[in-house]
TrEMBL record:
One of its GO terms (molecular function) is hydrolase activity. NCBIfam families: class_D_sortase, sortase_fam. It comes from Mesobacillus stamsii. This is Sortase A. It comes from the Bacteria. Pfam families: Sortase.
Length: 205
């Protein structure tokens, strides 16, 4: 009988410990998502468009690139401009690079692609739960406006795509000035999302 009570007490202690761990995890997870949501909301509502963006005063080190709208290339982590999404009334900062450091601050510009306004494929990425949390409301026919120190470039969305997370076709070269905007999908997925939501837009102005 004594062993029975000991086993019962041990079982209750294990269940109690598991309950405490689950509750603590719930508070941590909720707090993390709340922080992410508030950061995204703040970026959406407080970022103002900036038309003057200074690049580092270093010469273009990419010898094989054709003549560019930009006299110098940006450094990793530099703010290079603003992305305006008229349909969402959103103005979002764009940073050169797509590491977590850049994506935490705003929209990231894939460094292996051309800069906005140039001929070829300029690729922008952002988190679905911060800067691009409403991107699902944007689609074919809507406008995307990028402002940099080279000017103001207006793109019209030609099509949308859903691709696997590892699909590299979104960064392939294009024959004309194109803006490709990508974010994780589904938008309400918890954890690493398996797909990407893609906007493909052509330069019209």
């Amino acid at each position: 009988m004594s062993n029975f009570f000991k086993k019962g007490r041990t079982g209750r202690l294990v269940l109690l410990s598991l309950s405490v761990v689950i509750i603590a995890f719930g508070f941590w997870f909720s707090g993390t998502n709340a922080y992410t949501f508030m950061k995204g909301y703040w970026l959406y509502k407080t970022t103002e468009p900036q038309t003057e963006v200074a690049f580092a005063n270093k010469p273009d080190q990419t010898a094989n690139r054709p003549a560019s709208l930009y006299s110098v290339r940006p450094e990793q982590g530099e703010m290079i401009g603003n992305l305006t999404i008229p349909k969402l009334n959103a103005n979002l900062p764009i940073y050169h690079g797509t590491d977590e450091d850049e994506l935490e601050k705003g929209v990231g510009h894939f460094a292996g692609s051309v800069l906005p306004g140039e001929k070829d494929n300029s690729v922008l990425s952002g988190h679905r739960d911060t800067v691009f949390r409403q991107l699902g409301n944007v689609g074919k026919g809507d406008l995307l406006v990028v402002t940099t120190n080279a000017g103001k470039f207006t793109y019209k969305i030609r099509k949308t795509r859903f691709v696997d997370a590892n699909d590299r076709t979104v960064i392939v070269p294009k024959p004309r000035a194109t803006l490709t905007v990508t974010t994780c999908y589904p938008f309400d997925f918890i954890g690493d999302a398996p797909e990407r939501y893609i906007l493909i837009a052509d330069l019209i102005e």
